[in-house]
Amino acid sequence: MNHETHEFDVIVIGAGGAGLRAAIEASAQGARTALICKSLLGKAHTVMAEGGIAAALGNVYPEDNWEVHFRDTMRGGKMLNNWRMAQLHAQEAPARVLELEAWGALFDRTKDGRILQRDFGGHRYARLAHVGDRTGLEMIRTLQQHAVHKGMDVFMECTIVRLLKDGDRIAGAFGYWRESGRFVVFRAKAVVLATGGIGKAYKITSNSWEYTGDGHALAYWAGADLIDMEFVQFHPTGMVWPPSVRGILVTEGVRGDGGVLKNALGERFMFKYVPEFFRAETAETEEEADRWYTDKKNARRTPDLLPRDEVARAINAEVKAGRGSPHGGVFLDIASRRDAEYIQRRLPSMYHQFKELADVDITKEPMEVGPTCHYMMGGVRVDADSAAATVPGLFAAGEVAAGLHGANRLGGNSLSDLLVFGRRAGLYAAQYAEGLAVMPTIDAGQVEALARECLEPFERAGQENPYAVHQDLQECMQGLVGIIRTEGELEKALEEIAGLGERARRVRVEGNRQYNPGWHLALDLRSLLTVSEAITRAALERRESRGAQTRDDYPKMDPQLGKVNMVIREARGEMAVAREPLPEMPRELRAILEGDK
Amino acid sequence: MAEAVMRVWRGDAGGGAFREYRVPLDEGMVVLDVIHRIQAAQAPDLAVRWNCKAGKCGSCSAEVNGRPRLMCMTRMNLFPEGEPITVAPMKAFPLVRDLVTDVSFNYEVAGRIPAFRPKPPQPDGTYRMMQEDIDRVQEFHKCIECFLCQDVCHVIRDHEENKPRFAGPRFFVRIAALEMHPLDTHSRTELLRARAGLGFCNITKCCTEVCPEHIKITDNAIIPLKERVVDAHYDPVLWVVRKLSRK
User: Fold this and answer.
1) Among A2, A54, A406, A200, which residue's Cα sits nearest to residue B52?
2) ipTM of the complex model
């Protein structure tokens, strides 16, 4: 069989913020670059990001600088972050934001015409460059328009199902065109993974259909290490009603702009949930919390803006205690605290979203919100400076890479992550490709085997429906590997995932190969099952509660486990978990973290 | 439980027909939810393009009861109970399969628009812009590229032959965003007049009516661009002044 074949120095898989930024950089370095994406260009998950890009520009608070941002990021991640990534991220984010502006992005302005910055959870100062509540759209469109004039080749609606190797190193990738179902082979010296997250493993999620953990699985199958897979972020505020919109994101910007959480009794309950770790920097009274919005020097941050892991747990506890809203969430109230004109100007898409989907006018009544699966902290283990994975020729950036956010990501740190490490991945992938004299060879036999494997669902005698298997996996992960975890439930999840794997091997699809969503899902199920198993195994092994991982049976942080990553890798055909020490932080950075105690 | 009667277009470039599906309804459902239910239980290969299901990505454009809409933002309770609802692919683009069309025309047009070219920054390396000077351009940047405005525009909807010389409302918005950007230094008026076919538009405002982001495409983008073209083309003095003062 002869498959359509393309040859490039660098291929970038995924065209959200990280992929676009990586492709722009690789191309600027002179590498022949391809950008491959499952959807149309400009539709990637980045487009849904709302609140803003965290960068210590110091426009609103001149006191802000990279050291404060570094400190906030490390504390938000419960110190499990890769310190070097957190340092590079805090140092380089301002330049990446300014670069976006020079490419045409229009951020909201301060009175003197500079980039305005907004408050967000866990950030000491107002730090998020933003465009109302549609910052991701501005970012992806700016990058997309910049990229299309840079001479790269874009392959839209093309799904990669396996990375190809020549010995130990990367040799390319194998995939199919969604439209025709035909297979396509990419020969490449370097591959950048920028595939985003895994949210579609869960039932209630803010993530789009694309988030099936493809990059995580591709890396794992290619022999790369994954770390921090136990850390899945549940965003505290997703819509809860009506059922069909459950999980859709409600930006943290609502709280950044003055909104507060209340239970059914009308209490601002977050004051009851301030953990020891954040007590010294959090307001004790409602009066102090309200003052903080305008006076950062003499008042401490409202507990409504604690990091997301803390707020999600608190909402979960209030609902369990019977103090929830009618549809099983809590209330998020900005209507009683800010005037209608301000709300509509600052939060136009939230206004729109609630009005059209839930018949709620957020300038007049509170929203009902609850936790929704939002972000994957875990992913491909990378070198901090070069974004190189543990397989030569493989690079990863953005949500699919791990390390920057540790056990919990701060809001706003994702868009900056995409820009900072997207650029670095593109740069170092291009350099790696240039240093490789000969194009690696692709094994034709392996390609044929992959093609046959992909077509099996059309030919099987099995009767499993891919949609049903996916739904059952989502129920399993939501119920057993969700916000609160126990050993018994995690063990049960592993059994169920194994059973679902069996069923996935019996999935049969109808119709032909032309734009067939049932077939596409049947193939995506393999990545979903792999990442679900990795999450569950890592969660079992981390017998403590830290950041996004809450173990009911181990409710405290364990200082010993605070020094290790859980590393997932394939060993003799099995998925294995190993504990490996975090990189040691240099003294001068430790001083930044200890300086303000 | 209430039930919806859906007539969904099934077929490809070679032909097809509306097929009827009966789907149980829950409170708050949107058209895209119903399509997903059909996929999961009755027609696993029903082709539909979608991503975010939150009105932010502009992927799930279709014609519902003949009107171009985002399926994810169209509530089922908009329609009278029990009456059949038709869902068809966008008509202005070649059909791939079922509800999926080939929208590559739009990406080709996008590639032909000269890129943003900023003036030099301030000595400190940053730019100063006042909010009131960017409000209008921010309105244009709200565009989610759902291409519903392209779909409804009769210049290309009914005249395939116009596509090579007509950019369409989406790209008039894009060009307006560049032309009115306080930092941009290009002029695209000649492109608008000669190659983008701005003159074809006879301001019927159909595009504005279907825009899910409520961008005032005709009033705020197309009409000001038409004025610029007229000024630049027929008033040489003003044209020279504009050129020298960089608008």
Assistant:
1) A200
2) 0.94
